[in-house]
Each structure stands twice: as structure tokens, then as C-alpha cells.
Design a protein that fits this description.
By secondary structure, the chain is an alpha+beta fold. It contains two helices and twelve strands. Residues 119-135 form the Post-SET domain. GO terms for molecular function: methyltransferase activity.
Length: 168
């Protein structure tokens, strides 16, 4: 018999569902907008896969969270950011973008950290502003990204890409 599931953080629980990419992280308490949900102390450097998060501008700059936060899914109207902008990894955290009610699914905007995703997908978030195909910030216009919090390396790469396009 398999061991029973134990959440990695007491304020969250994974809701497991059959099928690929159907499980998600749910809150067990409310969070105020701007509040840090968790510091990402278990993050380790890892090659890029569908479950890593980009932590810098180079394709090899990726981390694996080694916790239930691997179950934070994408939304085009996210309620958290993965703030990996500090050069000190001990300062990396997940922060609420807005008030989050008890029992809410925790979601973030994948292109806020990802320049080019290892595994693109058709978004199923169902929000009014859904972008459809999610494949990384590289494939979005600056205007599409301006309504989101994005990591500093994403801002730099967008600026470089757009400058190169303007030169042509």
C-alpha cells in the first residue's frame, strides 16, 4: 500500500486528479494581496523540464521546487507570482498578487518566468483574457506582457528582442 500523502506546507494541499496535468495546489487558509505565501527554501538547480521554473535569463537557469509547489498551475489571471528576482536564492518566494480565499487554486502566469517553455500547451484557464497557446514570454508581444508582473530577465529579454526587431 502506498504511503498516505502528507502536504509539504501546512497552508496548502494538493488536490490529485487522474490524467496528465489535472492535479493542482489549493489553499487551506486565506492570504492577503502582497503577502508572501512561502519562501522557496527547497529549490534546487535542475535541467529544464516541464516541472522546473526558470530563475534567470539563460536556458539552463532552472530550479525544481521539491515540494507541493510543483502543482501550481498556469492562469492568464494568476493569483500569485514566483519572485525569483533576488540574486540571493534564500530570498526567493511566492507572493499573492491579490487576496486569495480559503480553498482557492494557486495559479501563476508561466511566461512571467519562462522565456521559452519546454512543453507548450493550449491554456484551459477559461478567463476572459486567456491568451490561448502558452509557450513562453518569447512568443508574446510586449503589450500582452505589460499587464503582468514579470521577472527581470523576462523584461530584459523582451527589450532585447524588440530592439532587434526595430533595427531590422
Amino acid at each position: 500500500m502506498a504511503d498516505p500523502y502528507t502536504p509539504s506546507h501546512p497552508e496548502f494541499v494538493v488536490e490529485f486528479h487522474e490524467g496528465d496535468f489535472r492535479s493542482f495546489l489549493r489553499t487551506r487558509r486565506a492570504f492577503a494581496g502582497g503577502e508572501i505565501l512561502v519562501h522557496l527554501t527547497n529549490a534546487t538547480r535542475s535541467p529544464q523540464t516541464y516541472s522546473t521554473v526558470q530563475c534567470g535569463r539563460e536556458p539552463e537557469d532552472n530550479v525544481q521546487f521539491n515540494s507541493d509547489f510543483v502543482f501550481v498551475n498556469h492562469s492568464c489571471e494568476p493569483n500569485v507570482v514566483f519572485d525569483l528576482s533576488s540574486p540571493d536564492a534564500r530570498e526567493w518566494h511566492i507572493r499573492a498578487l491579490k487576496d486569495i480565499e480559503v480553498g482557492s487554486s494557486v495559479t501563476y502566469f508561466y511566461p512571467s518566468t519562462e522565456w521559452h517553455m519546454d512543453q507548450a500547451f493550449d491554456c484551459q484557464c477559461g478567463t476572459e483574457g486567456c491568451l490561448g497557446k502558452i509557450q513562453g514570454a518569447r512568443y508574446l508581444k510586449r503589450e500582452e506582457l505589460m499587464k503582468y508582473w514579470v521577472s527581470p530577465w523576462i523584461s530584459e529579454l523582451i527589450r532585447e528582442r524588440d530592439t532587434e526587431i526595430e533595427r531590422r
